[in-house]
Design brief:
Length: 334
């Protein structure tokens, strides 16, 4: 073990709006000692997710909020240091809910094995982890994508969106991304293979998508909600599917979410709009992971991670997800 002490990021107070430095308490702590059934893991990579903002608020959601004083919840990947669970031994590489800390003491049964010969730690939190599963099940199960359809995805340069673009292209679809800024749009077209990308910060999204897909949209994969969702509802084709994956544009200010006022377009187009939580598909992850791993191995799928260093930078790095400062999957190496 390189560290005689653990370093943790705990929730100090519930933020109003964007989390700030005073939201968190960062400290050195004694190394936790695993009890029967527990495992001590050295965390190598921490997943930063837009949903983290929602976990900071009191109230009902798809999982309980992080409690005041608790280590911030986060998915992570790392190496087993000590084990009191027969499933694991020192040196095993794993992922699971490790939290924002350097050393995590967790129940062995909550961990999954990862093979770092296939991909580095951070990729197991990206295309091979929850964002990858979200793209795959959102597009193919919730979106019921058929070969050759037209697809639009927002936050297209991000962890989920970047893979949605590539998976839809692999099914012969015409794909348009929506992203913030020319650099991201270039990435979405040149690296992920979209047919076009609309920069919502400088272009009219409705006009841009409509010019790229004059026949309309079969599947809109929504990561952002708000006004972009509203614009896309006007461009649906008959029997279109709108996949409600997330609504990051509103995560820091739910009270002032704008749109959609025009949801009756769903009626006019006999369309449907459906939300989902990826964890409901956990039993089927191996199916999705196998296709994505094959794509990585043969070069058909490109993975992009935006890796930042230092656990103490967590308060400054997390907000990048809400300002668009990340390119691809945002990961912190503690
Ligand atoms: P990400 O796309 O890598 O990062 C978030 C991106 O959102 C930013 O880079 C930014 O890109 C964009 N964004 C932020 N504020 C915005 C705004 N006001 N308007 C438009 N775009 C904005 O994050 P991710 O991990 O892949 O997550 C994408 C979505 O999937 C999120 O909504 C997340 O909550 C959701 N998700 C859902 C599930 C599920 O089970 N349903 C599971 C995982 C993730 P730009 O620079 O392009 O603005």
């Amino acid at each position: 073990m390189n560290d005689a002490r653990n370093r943790t990021v705990r929730l100090a107070r519930r933020p109003v709006g964007l989390p700030g430095r005073d939201t968190w308490a960062i400290a050195d702590e004694p190394v936790p000692v695993p009890q029967e059934g527990e495992v001590l893991v050295e965390v190598k990579a921490i997943s930063l997710d837009p949903a983290m903002r929602g976990w900071l608020d009191e109230g009902k959601s798809y999982i309980p909020p992080v409690g005041l004083g608790e280590v911030m919840r986060a998915a992570g990947a790392g190496v087993v240091l000590q084990s009191r669970d027969p499933r694991w031994k020192p040196g095993d590489t794993v992922m699971g809910g490790l939290g924002v800390q350097k050393l995590a003491c967790v129940r062995g049964r909550d961990l999954e094995p990862i093979d770092i010969a296939i991909a580095p730690f951070e990729r197991w939190l990206g295309v091979l982890g929850v964002p990858g599963m979200t793209a795959w099940f959102g597009l193919f199960e919730v979106g019921a994508l058929k070969d050759g359809e037209t697809v639009v995805v927002s936050a297209a340069a991000g962890a989920v969106g970047g893979l949605v673009v590539q998976l839809a292209k692999s099914r012969g679809c015409q794909v348009v991304g929506i992203a913030g800024g020319p650099d991201k749009c270039r990435l979405v077209v040149e690296q992920f293979g979209a047919d076009a990308c609309i920069d919502y910060k400088s272009q009219d999204v409705r006009a841009g998508v409509s010019a790229a897909l004059p026949g309309g949209v079969d599947v809109y994969f929504d990561n952002v909600g708000g006004e972009i969702l509203e614009a896309m509802l006007t461009l649906l084709r008959r029997r279109a599917r709108v996949v409600i994956c997330g609504a990051v544009s509103g995560y820091n200010d739910f009270a002032n979410i704008r749109g959609p006022r025009n949801y009756l377009n769903l009626l006019i187009q006999r369309a449907r709009m459906e939300g989902f939580v990826v964890f409901d598909y956990a039993a089927r992850y191996p199916e999705a992971r196998a296709e994505i791993a094959r794509g990585l191995a043969d070069g058909a799928i490109r993975a992009l991670e935006d890796v930042r260093d230092g656990i103490d930078t967590f308060p400054d790095v997390l907000p990048l997800l809400y300002s668009g400062g990340n390119f691809g999957k945002l990961v912190l190496r503690p």
